[in-house]
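Summary for the steering committee. One of the milestones for this cycle was to obtain a three-dimensional model of the protein with adenosine-5'-triphosphate bound, which we needed before selecting residues for the alanine scan. The sequence and ligand used are listed below.
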Amino acid sequence: MDAHDTEVMPSTLIAPEANGDGHVASVHNLYKSFGSFQVMNGLSLDFKPRAITTILGPSGTGKSVLLKHMVGLLEPDSGTVNVFGQDIWGIAERERAQLRKRFGVLFQDGALFGSMNVYDNVAFPLRKHTDKSESEIREIVTYRLKEVGLEAAEKKAPNEISGGMKKRAGFARALVMNPEIVLFDEPDSGLDPVRTSLLNDVILKIHEEDRGTYVVVTHDIRTAKKVSDYVGLIWQGRVVYYGPAEEAFSSSDPFVRQFLAGDSVGPLGMD
Ligand SMILES: Nc1ncnc2c1ncn2[C@@H]1O[C@H](COP(=O)(O)OP(=O)(O)OP(=O)(O)O)[C@@H](O)[C@H]1O
């Protein structure tokens, strides 16, 4: 068990070790291709500690691929990924695995195990990665389920709960290891506007308590407007705009204006 595992509640969140430049996570000049298809094309971005950064961009532009690089699931062809002051591809896989435990990831569909009920899904990382007792695990899981409003659903199977509940269960599971960085891959996909808004409220409330570094990939402008401290716009594997949210939403930058307006005319093409 590492030091991180010994700390549980948000009030005891460990201060993230920043990179030398004060950022807890940054990617620099990232290039990645799959076969002849160049997905990352010199992408650089610094993520502000304890802030919510939203990554916007057209479909297929490399947003999920960026998240996978950050958590060390994809290795760049060139460029660097720094988290917690370490170049994650300059260390051994064993050390990378340790770093991964300091991330929480909410996948698009919640990625719940169909054979386990909600409680066991949320308890899974604690049982796998820590030597906590079942009573300690119950305390943490109950706390997190309550936080996302699912305490009454703990015995339900994933196929017995709604899409919004699955996302919230996935969020609770992403939080149980008390992560310093939480990555959200389209938390709002497949949700109606009201459920999207409710999920965003939960994200904001928990961020307010935990003060983790959150990175949210979304297509939904309302989500971006509601939760972002900073906004990055990605196109063709590069950052074409980055700035504080209040500036982004009033920006005259042609990429941002086109994306926010959903306009077919502008610098963002179909490719
Ligand atoms: N493991 C892989 N092998 C081959 N191609 C891949 C792989 N992962 C991603 N790609 C391709 O890289 C491109 C970018 O994918 P990515 O999932 O990052 O897009 P995205 O911006 O998240 O899109 P969306 O908003 O539609 O989810 C896509 O064309 C995708 O097909």
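Key point for the committee: The first helix runs from residue 63 to 70.
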